[in-house]
Amino acid sequence: MFFENSNFYYDFRDFQTCCVHLNVHLKMRVSISVVLYQKTLSNNENPLAIRLTKDGKRKYLRLGISLLPQYWDNLKNKPKINCPNREYIEGVITEKLSKYQKQALEFQTISKEFSLTQLIAAVDKPMKSITVEKYLENIVERLTKEKRIGNAEHYKSLLKSLQKFTRLSQTLFVDIDSSFLNKYETFMREKGNKGNTISIKMRTLKATYNQAIKDNIIKKDYFPFNDYNVSKLKEETVKRAITKEDIQNILNFDVTTITKRPQSLIQFSKDLFLFSYFGCGINMVDMAYLKKENIISGRIAYRRQKTNKPISFLLNQYALDILKKYEQENSKYLFPILDNSVHITVEQQIE
Fold it and tell me: Structure pTM?
């Protein structure tokens, strides 16, 4: 007789099996039974497994036990009296059947629709128990403390969206399957969201799920994005470029010719645009956080607020002239966007 150490399940459908008719049929169309595979192992024994069937789908959870077919009693649904380790095998079968029957009945009691994957996960119990809502809140808090404001906003937006879609305070990661994702996509479209907006939220949710796997919140076997294509959501945008002639025209443009808006504000906007251009496309948020210590040996060296990726670029004369124009002795920032005395906390800086 052969006992396996591993405890895992296979999703095979067409195995010829000898079934022990310990079937428990629930109102939610789930069947739980013990099966003995006809497939013979190298030691001439056959493996025992619990078969879960629901809505035409099947999953097999191996018991880690195999035995010779002559030791299995198909009529009495248990090992024969002369079966080696009979009491142990019966105990394992009873324990496993009881767990799945109890969990399936619990789902039925609370009228919770469930998949076989969710049933297995509920019995196995994830290593850590935390709702999707709480996990996202923790991510937002961590990113905010790290001053990765852009990233934090993506997760905060996803959190608010999911709270409108479902009872997120009761949602676990195992509840997020391909059906959940398709319904969530439909929900967002009905709310008027475009493809790229939906794509961002789905990619953020995918990243959240991957991180939860790394944190041992959920097993990677339950990863739902293998059956859901996020890339289909992204819409192609028209490529936009600005010519050198356009940049030269902006450089030469005299803001005093515009009279409807404060000239100082227009000049500041022009300077920020040009500094971004000369600074390899540095964005507004990163410019706002630039400090005097970011200037190192004639270069700007900083970390992106969104990704924390280190960036460095050489300051040409145009960029140096712009920095000199806005230099302030009483401010640690290079541009008058954030104020030392006002924008103290991360929350104040965001506002």
Answer: 0.52
